[in-house]
Design brief:
- This protein has 312 residues and is mainly alpha-helical.
- It is 86% helix and 1% strand.
- The protein contains eight helices and two strands; from the N terminus they run H-E-H-H-E-H-H-H-H-H.
- Strands 1-2 form a two-stranded parallel sheet.
- Helix 5 packs parallel to helix 8.
- The radius of gyration is 42 Å and the shape is elongated.
- The relative contact order is 0.06.
- The C terminus is likely disordered.
Length: 312
């Protein structure tokens, strides 16, 4: 391909990426205004659901409630626009993939969305109330909790996002195994390292307490083991399909070879028949000419013999 053609193809990809990004941004902007209006009711529900009874949130700067409302509204808009964003991502990646890879990519994307929502739900509905009750347990006559609205929203967002991200581990593992980047045997040998990394990430992504670290690390470890089973099944299925594909290719090649040999044999037979027929025609014409010549010579010789008899 020429340099201009490569540049044109690269620019086309950039244009497709730009369109996909702008459509995702447009979807977020479309849900932003409803998200901002829904932010305060959602925040009140989070406080009632997560915090112990009687706990009230505080704000320490005049504009902090407005900034928190905008931040929470943006988070709600991103969550609402996530199907559109994933659809645009799949539409951008799909033209460069084969048909079976497109199907696998669509399954991976929707599995990633479901796992993210499952992890976010665990972080929001299970871990956040436990964290708030654990924090309220330190209150005493001389120690009163004063929880800021910004810190509470940041904690909820951190836990929700951390669980959603960590729950993407099975998708990443299955994707890597499915496309041959790593094998299941390598992942099994690296299990101690993987478990250590999981708990280190859980300690980094969650607040500095052992409860939230265990609540994030243990489910992620279980998902790692489940992903190993799924990836092993997919690897065996992929190997069997590859063997079947090779067998079918070999059978088709052998069939085409035998068909070519049959065509060649038929061509030779046809050529032999054609040559024999042509030789028969030549011999027949030669024989006919010879017979006509002999017949003509016999008539002429008889005529001369008759004339000699008359003279005698």
């Amino acid at each position: 391909m020429s340099k201009n053609g490569s540049d044109s193809s690269f620019l086309d990809h950039l244009e497709a990426l730009r369109r996909a990004l702008w459509r995702g941004v447009a979807a977020i902007a479309l849900f932003l205004i409803p998200g901002v209006f829904a932010a305060l009711p959602v925040l009140e529900w989070l406080v009632r659901f997560s915090c112990p009874e009687g706990v009230k949130l505080n704000y320490f700067t005049p504009m902090e409630p407005l900034l928190v409302q905008l931040k929470l509204g943006l988070i709600l808009a991103v969550i609402a626009a996530m199907p559109v964003i994933l659809h645009q991502l799949a539409g951008f990646v799909a033209p460069g993939l084969y048909e079976h890879e497109r199907r696998a990519c669509r399954r991976v994307i929707w599995a990633a969305l479901l796992l993210f929502l499952a992890g976010a739900a665990i972080g929001l509905f299970l871990v956040t109330p436990l964290m708030m009750r654990f924090s309220a347990g330190f209150a005493s006559d001389s120690l009163a909790p004063v929880i800021g609205i910004g810190g509470f929203v940041n904690l909820v967002g951190l836990l929700t996002l951390s669980f959603g991200i960590m729950f993407q581990l099975p998708v990443v593992m299955v994707f890597l195994v499915r496309f041959g980047v790593v094998r299941v045997a390598t992942l099994r040998r690296s299990r101690p390292i993987a478990v250590t990394v999981i708990f280190i990430l859980a300690a980094i992504l969650t607040p500095p307490d052992i409860v939230s670290q265990l609540l994030l690390g243990i489910p992620t470890w279980l998902l790692f083991e489940i992903a190993l089973l799924i990836a092993a099944h997919g690897e065996r299925k992929g190997e069997s399909s590859a063997v079947e594909h090779e067998d079918s290719v070999s059978a088709s090649i052998a069939s085409e070879k035998s068909r070519d040999e049959e065509f060649a044999a038929e061509g030779e037979n046809h050529l032999d028949e054609t040559e024999e027929t042509a030789m028969d025609v030549v011999y027949r014409d030669s024989y006919r000419k010879k017979r006509r010549k002999n017949r003509r010579f016999g008539v002429i010789s008889g005529h001369y013999r008759g004339k000699r008899g008359v003279k005698k």
